[in-house]
Specification:
This protein is 26% helix and 23% strand. It has a five-stranded mixed beta sheet with strand order 2-1-5-3-4, with no helix packed on it. The longest helix is centred in the middle third of the chain and has 11 residues, at 27-37. The protein has three helices and five strands; from the N terminus they run βαβααβββ. The chain has 90 residues and is of the alpha+beta class. It has helices spanning 8-14, 27-37, 41-45; strands at residues 2-5, 19-22, 56-60, 63-64, 80-85. It starts with a strand and ends in a 5-residue tail after the last strand. It has one domain: Roll (Ubiquitin-like (UB roll)).
């Protein structure tokens, strides 16, 4: 099982829990399971090209993925996935 932490804007829009435990091997698996419970959630997080939206930062067990990471990225057993709103500005 992995733990997924979702941004407040997503949990508010879908009335979802901010922290979810689920079984997954890739970020694609995570998105499929989220979308099964909250239809449409995956499209809020991922572009049609299967990369995370530009305004999100994704971390797996403390390691930040590159911007617009692809959903095929593997997640390890007992990983913690954080999906956060990216902070920008100057």
């Amino acid at each position: 099982m992995i733990t997924v932490h979702l941004p407040g804007s997503v949990t508010d829009a879908f009335h979802a829990d901010p922290v979810i435990s689920l079984a997954a091997h890739t970020l694609s698996d995570v998105l499929q399971r989220l979308d099964q419970t909250w239809p449409g959630m995956a499209s809020w997080l991922v572009e049609p090209d299967d990369c995370f939206r530009e305004n999100l930062s994704v971390f797996i067990s403390g390691r930040r993925l590159p911007p617009r990471a692809h959903v095929s990225t593997p997640v390890g057993d007992a990983a913690e996935v954080w999906i956060l709103r990216a902070i920008s500005g100057g």
